[in-house]
Amino acid sequence: MNDILDLPAERDLPPVAARTMHAHLLRMVGGRRPRTVRVRLAAAAAVLLVVTSAVAAIRWNRPDGGDLQILAMGAGELSPSLREAADQCVNWNSREVAAGRAAAEQRIPLSVTDLAVAIERGDRALVVFMNAAGYATCDMRLAGPGQEANGGGATNRWPHGDWLPGPVQRLLLTSTEPGGGDVSVSGRVSGRVDRLLLDHGDGRTTLARLSAGVFGLMTTGAGLTAESGPELVSYDGGGAEIDRRPLFQPEDQLDRCYTGPDGAVIYGRPGPSCLPAEQWQR
User: What is the assigned CATH class of domain 162-281?
Assistant: First the structure.
């Protein structure tokens, strides 16, 4: 049983300790001291963020996910509420940079045009920005009447630039249940990928949307579990399968390793049969 999405110990902590733990987890994204934005984080509303090797898994704290589900690829597909979420994330980032609270080497200026994937489930939203420098995420509870949006976020520079661990790099995973349930997944793909899908492991599949080297997918009624072995499967333009990897497996646990242009291993555990990393092209 993969426990990457298990409920956090903070459920039993006092509010102050819970907020401290949540902030610590956000700071651990990728192990690279990313800049963290925290605005009105409340223990009852906080989203669990667990990170391993720059791959994040987030569990929405509304198990049913609400009635409304939206997956948008880019700024041109945003609903009014997702537009608000994207603008809020950009504003948080701008304020943090302007205040000088982010180390110079970690600052990633953002604009709404950098938006790659936006996901909405009920009253929660997750927005993912990508540009040449790195990526940024914000998760938040959307503002209701007379309320302000609250949540948090983090930025991270690309650890190996445009080089990916093969054809696909999963960056973020959200789940409606501790062990899976419905998921939303986003990340990067190389130019070789013409089609990408999630194999549920029970005969069902969900096709991902591809846009400018970025992918996003969202399941409905999937009931996924780690035991069923869901996998991300990539195909080239001729329809041939070129990659298959477990959905819940972080990059530092990949069964294969990948080398950069200089031959050094940059993803996975060093082994005798590494494959060349593939280039991200937007």
Answer: mainly beta
